Amino acid sequence: MVTDPEPGGVLGRIRREVERNALRARNGIKMAAGLSAPRLGASPKDTVWRNGRARLFHYRNDDVRRRPPLLIVFSLISRSYILDLTPGNSFVEHLQDAGFDVYLLDWGEPDERDALNDLEYYVDGAIPAAIREVHRTSGADRINLLGYCFGGVLTLLHAAHHPDTPIRSLTVIACPVDLKRMEMVEIALGDSPIDVEAVLDEDGNVPASVVYNAFRTLRPVAEVTGYVDLLEKLWSDDYVAAYQAMQGWGTDHIPLPGAVARQLVGMLYRDDAMMSDRLVIGGDRVHLNDITVPFLSVLGKKDHIVPEAAAAPVLDLVGSADKTDLRLAGGHVGLVVGRTAAKTTIPTIIEFLEKQSEPLT
Q1: In DSSP terms, which residues pair with 86 in a beta bridge?
Q2: Of the candidates 149, 182, 195, the residue with the CA atom closest to the CA atom of residue 299
Q3: 255: closest CA among 112, 85, 56, 54?
Q4: Cross-strand pairs, 54
Q5: How far apart are the C-alpha atoms of 257 and 205, rounded to whole Å?
Q6: How many Å apart are CA 272 and CA 16, to the nearest integer?
Q7: Interatomic CA distance for residues 244 and 33, integer angstroms
Q8: Is 18 exposed, middle or buried (0-12, 13-18, 19+ CB in 10 A)?
Q9: How far is residue 262's CA from residue 219's CA, in Å, rounded to a whole number?
Q10: CA-to-CA separations, 19 to 12, 66, 187, in angstroms, rounded
Q11: Digit-coded pLDDT (tens) for 1-31
């Protein structure tokens, strides 16, 4: 009988590949049958405020050690559970482990009742109401505010239009300010009011399928390469679970209210209003340099959705004396999910927030 004592020898490699093929077959069957779908957004939470489809979540944490609370404002075109993807791979979990009291403003899934929701609804209505509710439920007189993707834009506009808003600091992640550098806007919505009207559905909103197809257009071969990588690593339970979680979120978009789409193309894209200082919210001229609270911007150098060139100028636009940017060699989602986020992004955000907080006694 021939033996191969070296694990890296020929027989060892053959044995390992046979085992992996068996695991590939098992995991492939489980995926096809829908038996291996991971739990998404599983951190316990309570809905403490609601307005229309918008909901304010408060994540349960028996070990809050820092004040004030943190309010996260999510984007308008995707699901917020990316920030609480799976147990052990959750931005929210990291924040809780660091002792923060975490709230998240989720916009739900818009329908015909939301078609007229404009930027003012979010910037002057929903965000201030959510802040008041955080104050009420926590007893804090100020909060730290964080915006992800287009949620970052909403927090910028809110803080600029309401300089006296009771926030202690502002953090934005993958937040576009130079929308002329955002290829996705023109792909999804065009560059004129006529183009916007052409993509609206019978509810008056931009359908989720339009948003999804715009993402696919930005990376036309990503789906194919993703399948190739999956086939190669189908033997790994951890890889399969991570793939399913990310693939599920990446195809799970929501409609964009028509009124916001019009302002997005008209004021933010065609007029490039954030870069040209021509913002108008609620009939008022709004200036980003009126934001003076401590400020952190996090962006990805390989972000194909919000390119570095679209996000980087924010540091020059805000008026804060204490302002920092963190630029990572990662992509859009990798800023909050995965190994890079766990090792670099999240610890940096936590360090910044700790400086804007005090121990809870």
Answers
A1: 89
A2: 149
A3: 112
A4: 51
A5: 5
A6: 56
A7: 13
A8: exposed
A9: 25
A10: 11, 48, 45
A11: 445 555 556 666 667 655 665 555 555 555 5
Name the residue among 123, 86, 80, 122 with its Cα closest to residue 102: 80
**How do 102-106 and 70-73 pair as beta strands?**
parallel
Cβ atoms of 226 and 15 closer than 8 Å:
no
H-helix or E-strand spanning residue 104: strand 102-106
Q: What is the pTM of this model?
A: 0.84
- Span of 125-139, 184-198, 227-241, 246-260 with lowest mean pLDDT: 227-241
CA distance 182 to 208: 18
Q: What is the largest CA-CA distance in the chain?
A: 86
Does residue 357 come out as left (phi exceeding 0), alpha (psi in the -120 to 50 range) or beta? beta
pLDDT at 228: 44
Q: Give the length of the chain.
A: 361
For residue 306, which of 323, 331, 341 has the smallest C-alpha distance? 331
216 close to 223: Cβ distance less than 8 angstroms = yes
pLDDT 10s digits, 46-57: 999 999 999 999
| Helix locations, 204-305, DSSP H | 208-218, 222-233, 237-250, 258-263, 273-276
Token code pair at residue 335 = 């800023």
